[in-house]
């Protein structure tokens, strides 16, 4: 097992176009700042310590999870999250290279940053707690692989050491982490969000963002991953499918939804001007099939926050489930515009779903017999997310339908060569 010893380390490093602050996990780029999960930040600093040299999987797991038995999926998830945050592509990496049967290495040259400040204006040196900079630190760090993780372990444990004077700041950080987990829409991430929201409520029972967040996460658990005997692995990605299946009206989903309703309504009672609280009440109502109440809550959330893209998407979703499909599309478009405005400041939550929403809008226009508008939307998505598979295939289909086989072939060939898509570029349908 890798032995970790206390040693000096930089407060912040620059890696390519990115700068990361150790004590907060803040990742700062040209389009704004986001926050890395602690283990993901530890991984980045660990790889940076080797300065381009390989770090084996065993070394990483010993350093990030000392004394713990964890599976390879924990490491794979941390690597995936780091690549996602850096905008890296595993097929054509610029930052994190996978070394088959060996481990990983950082491709970009890391350099310490002396005067970087957080988005709150606090300088990186001011965040240092137990380290004194000195020349030659990188040479020492390269010798001791796990040194950098000590700082992360201290910071991580510090975030969980709640005192009366630090409740508010700790709660804010936990909620930010929980929100990032929630918006990844995977089962593991959603469970992490539930745990973090509940920890906040253990400290502050009337914390409105935590009440709303927990309500959302409970609804998402009920909708997407029903715990039904004999149907392990059953999951739904769309509310309409979950409602049609019927499990939301039966325990345990119905019980979870009732708990979520009480949490969301308490959040609204505590802060009637909270857009997040109204969004949560709308989400509960929609999962319970109370569509009029859901729309009213979502509309109130949008009145309070015009950029509440989650509420805008959900309005569109409820309208489609209710059969009002033509009314839904403008809300999806408004949600996409809100995502565009908020992308730089909230990339972690928006990025996984930005391109998907744009492709959905394109499909809706194609299904309505408006190919020119569908093409414009596919091209808009690809301008932001080049080689997005669904949008590439959708655009290729439209080009073929318009007689431009040559351009469609070029798109499909590039998708196959660079992304490795095995599915035919002509497969699928234009509408849903």
Describe this structure as you would to a colleague.
This protein is α+β, with helices and mostly antiparallel strands and 432 residues long. It folds into three domains: 12-161, Orthogonal Bundle (Arc Repressor Mutant, subunit A), CATH 1.10.10.10; 165-342, Alpha Horseshoe (Serine Threonine Protein Phosphatase 5, Tetratricopeptide repeat); 355-432, Serine Threonine Protein Phosphatase 5, Tetratricopeptide repeat. Helix content is 59%, strand content 7%. The protein contains 19 helices and eight strands. The strands form two sheets. A five-stranded antiparallel sheet has the order 4-3-2-1-8, covered by helices on one side. The protein has a three-stranded antiparallel sheet with strand order 5-7-6. A hairpin with a 2-residue loop joins β1 and β2. α1 (38-50) runs antiparallel to α6. Residues 1-9, 115-169 and 427-432 have low confidence and may be disordered.
Q: Topology of this protein?
A:
Blueprint: E1 12-15, E2 18-21, E3 26-29, E4 32-35, H1 38-50, E5 55-56, H2 57-64, H3 72-86, E6 96-99, E7 103-106, E8 110-112, H4 124-127, H5 137-143, H6 147-160, H7 167-182, H8 187-203, H9 208-224, H10 239-245, H11 253-270, H12 275-287, H13 291-304, H14 309-321, H15 325-342, H16 347-367, H17 371-384, H18 389-401, H19 405-419
Antiparallel strand pairs: 1-2, 1-8, 2-3, 3-4, 5-7, 6-7
């Amino acid at each position: 097992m890798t032995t970790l010893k206390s040693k000096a380390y930089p407060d912040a490093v620059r890696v390519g176009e990115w700068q990361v602050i150790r004590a907060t996990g803040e990742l700062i780029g040209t389009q704004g700042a986001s926050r890395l999960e602690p283990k993901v930040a530890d991984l980045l600093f660990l790889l940076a310590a080797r300065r381009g040299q390989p770090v084996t999987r065993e070394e990483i797991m010993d350093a990030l999870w000392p004394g713990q038995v964890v599976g390879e999926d924990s490491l794979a998830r941390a690597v995936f999250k780091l690549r996602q945050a850096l905008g890296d592509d595993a097929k054509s990496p610029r930052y994190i290279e996978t070394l088959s049967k060996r481990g990983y290495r950082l491709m970009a040259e890391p350099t310490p940053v002396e005067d970087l400040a957080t988005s709150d204006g606090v300088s990186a040196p001011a965040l240092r707690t137990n380290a004194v900079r000195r020349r030659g630190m990188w040479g020492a760090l390269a010798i001791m692989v796990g040194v950098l993780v000590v700082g992360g372990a201290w910071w991580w444990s510090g975030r969980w050491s709640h005192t009366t004077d630090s409740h508010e700041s700790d709660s804010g950080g936990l909620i930010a982490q929980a929100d990032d987990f929630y918006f990844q829409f995977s089962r593991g991430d959603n469970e992490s969000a539930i745990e973090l929201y509940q920890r906040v409520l253990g400290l502050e029972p009337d914390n409105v963002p935590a009440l709303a967040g927990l309500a959302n996460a409970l609804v998402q658990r009920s909708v997407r991953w029903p715990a039904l005997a004999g149907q392990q692995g059953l999951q739904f990605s769309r509310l309409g499918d979950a409602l049609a299946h019927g499990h939301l009206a039966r325990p345990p989903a119905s019980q979870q939804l009732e708990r979520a309703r009480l949490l969301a309504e308490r959040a609204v009672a505590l802060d009637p001007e909270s857009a997040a609280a109204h969004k949560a009440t709308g989400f509960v109502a929609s999962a319970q099939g109370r569509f009029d109440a859901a729309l009213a809550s979502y509309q109130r959330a949008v009145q309070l926050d015009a950029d509440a893209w989650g509420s805008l998407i959900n309005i569109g979703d409820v309208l489609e489930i209710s059969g009002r499909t033509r009314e839904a599309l403008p809300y999806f478009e408004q949600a996409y515009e809100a995502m565009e405005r908020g992308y730089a400041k909230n990339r972690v939550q928006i990025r996984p779903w930005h391109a998907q929403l744009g492709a959905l809008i394109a499909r809706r226009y194609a299904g309505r017999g408006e190919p020119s508008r569908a093409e414009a939307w596919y091209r808009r998505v690809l301008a932001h997310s080049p080689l997005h598979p669904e949008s590439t295939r959708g655009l290729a289909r439209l080009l073929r339908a318009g007689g431009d086989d040559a351009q469609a072939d070029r798109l499909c060939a590039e998708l196959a060569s660079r992304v490795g898509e095995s599915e035919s570029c002509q497969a699928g349908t234009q509408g849903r």
